[in-house]
Amino acid sequence: MSENERCQLGTVGALSLSVVSSVSIVICNKALISSLGFTFATTLTSWHLLVTFCSLHVALWMKLFEHKPFDPRAVMGFGILNGISIGLLNLSLGFNSVGFYQMTKLAIIPCTVLLETLFFRKKFSRNIQLSLTILLLGVGIATVTDLQLNVLGSVLSLLAVVTTCIAQIMTNTIQKRFKVSSTQLLYQSCPYQALTLFITGPFLDGLLTNQNVFAFKYTPLVLVFIVLSCLISVSVNFSTFLVIGKTSPVTYQVLGHLKTCLVLAFGYVLLHDPFSWRNIFGILVALVGMILYSYICSLENQQKASEASVPLSQEAEADPLLMVENGAAVVADGVIVPKAPGWAADKDLHA
Fold first, then answer.
1. Which of 63, 178, 344, 349 is the most buried (most CB within 10 A)?
2. Pick from 94, 91, 43: which is nearest to 199 by CA?
3. What whole-number distance in Å separates Cα of residue 338 and Cα of residue 314?
4. 3-state class (DSSP) for residue 337
């Protein structure tokens, strides 16, 4: 199996793991919140992150991955920003209608595209933009109902969108810049995320629910679902970093909307949630957008790969003696081997 095929297989595995684990945890949390009355989402998230860190620490002790320390300020800033973005998303849901919250989630994709275009000079083709527009239109039709606006809720939603976009862009950028894996980054940033939410969680949950998380009656059934939710969260957190690291923040958001459609479909088929033809039409339109996005990304990646291989083939066909004379090749064991250009080596060191 070639390196490219292994990379593609790893990406498909990461996407599949993200979808399965996210849908599973939504189902588990829905039972925990709706049926058992445990409505402390931010505090629950801090427990998720704490269990994730403990699990990764055990994996490190078992030498399943290698600890690779890097810039501690970058790790701390990234972890705290991630924790803040989660808290703001929960506040946005608490102070806005469900319809406006869905609009907030839809705004993350165009905001990410805008930030990457402005600050990273990343270019998105017209076909990519069209597929994203179709996707957002479909998800909007399927999920957005009422749009009740208020000043505080709007400000919280704006802050939630911006911090979420920056955190997800940083996830991708840090992994590539410091050459760390998703597991290594998650292991080092988890304590800061967990601590941020552990401190602010009870206060935010009390503000939103008028209840005290420490005064809640923890029955055996509630504890079982909390433990189950925490265990699934390990897979959710790991797959999130894995997907963003292997693809891009925009692709991760597209995957997130696929999860939304799957959750809606699951609720209709198994839980008999209220559903309408508008929901079905919206999901179908969103699926068309996702398929188009995947197809266009695949075509563009193949085109970039073929363009990158052209200079290599031209270099291989060059006169070997001339290459040695110009310092473009080195002799190893009597065989002339093309030497990597200086800019490529620098790029590997500083990416």
1. 178
2. 43
3. 11
4. strand
What residues pair up with 333 in beta bridges, in sequence order? none
> Which residue type does 9 have?
L
E strand spans, the chain: 329-332, 335-338
> Residue 141 in contact with residue 285, Cβ under 8 Å?
yes
Structure tokens at 306: 């073929």
- Contact criterion met (CB below 8 Å) for 278 and 144: no
SS3 338: strand
> Is 91:208 a contact under the CB 8 Å cutoff?
yes
Cα dist. 1→6, 9, 16, 205 in Å?
7, 10, 20, 50
Q: Which of 292, 301, 8, 12 is nearest to 128 (CA)?
A: 292
Q: Which residue has 């239109």 as its token pair?
A: 137
User: How many residues does the structure list for the chain?
Assistant: 351
In this structure, what token pair is assigned to residue 69? Answer: 């320390």
Contact (CB, 8 A) for 36 and 225: yes
- For residues 188 and 71, is the Cβ–Cβ distance under 8 A? no
| Whether this model's pTM surpasses 0.90 | no
- pLDDT tens per residue, range 256-274: 777 777 766 766 666 566 6
Q: Considering only CA atoms, which of 195, 188, 185, 212 is closest in space to residue 47?
A: 195
Residue carrying the six token digits 């504890």? 223
User: Tens of pLDDT along 121-146?
Assistant: 888 888 888 988 988 888 888 777 66
